[in-house]
Automatic annotation (TrEMBL):
InterPro entries registered for this protein in UniProt: Prob_Methyltransferase, SAM-dependent_MTases_sf
Organism: Linum tenue
Protein name per Swiss-Prot or TrEMBL: Methyltransferase type 11 domain-containing protein
Length: 142
């Protein structure tokens, strides 16, 4: 990414393998940050934040809300939040997580929901959400 003058910061976890080192060798900046801590980035400086599979229904709702509002803090106006393979129960997505994400007031560029087809997903009625959301350029009333 350095050749394109792009800096990518990604969260990593080392589970008996050197993930941070592999990420760094590929030109990305590895970051260790717990969900209960603000992202160590200035306000309004990122163009894209991707939340991958680790951000899912197992995260306590208060921590999820904190994470979303912290992502909102670091995204620039017009920036994108990419929620990738978020899984939850289908009913929880429509009643809990969808409205929580909707509180941000972002434009839904893409919002795709599909059934989680592994044994746990079929048994528990779980779904995947992949969404690309754009932060508004201006917010009225703020």
């Amino acid at each position: 990414m350095k050749q394109y003058n792009v800096t990518v910061v990604t969260t990593t976890m080392n589970f008996n393998v050197p993930n941070s080192e592999v990420v760094a060798m590929r030109g990305l900046v590895p970051l260790h940050a717990p969900l209960q801590q603000r992202l160590p980035v200035f306000d309004g400086v990122l163009d894209l934040v991707r939340c991958g599979r680790a951000v899912n229904r197992w995260i306590p709702l208060a921590a999820m809300e904190f994470l979303l509002y912290d992502v909102d803090r670091v995204l620039r106006s017009g920036g994108y939040l990419w929620i990738d393979h978020f899984f939850s129960k289908g009913a929880d997505l429509s009643k809990v997580y969808g409205p929580l994400i909707g509180k941000l007031g972002y434009k839904k560029v893409k919002w795709a929901v599909a059934n989680k087809t592994d044994s746990s997903g079929l048994k528990n009625g779980e779904v995947y959400l992949t969404a690309l959301l754009q932060k508004p350029l201006f917010r009225s009333g703020l």
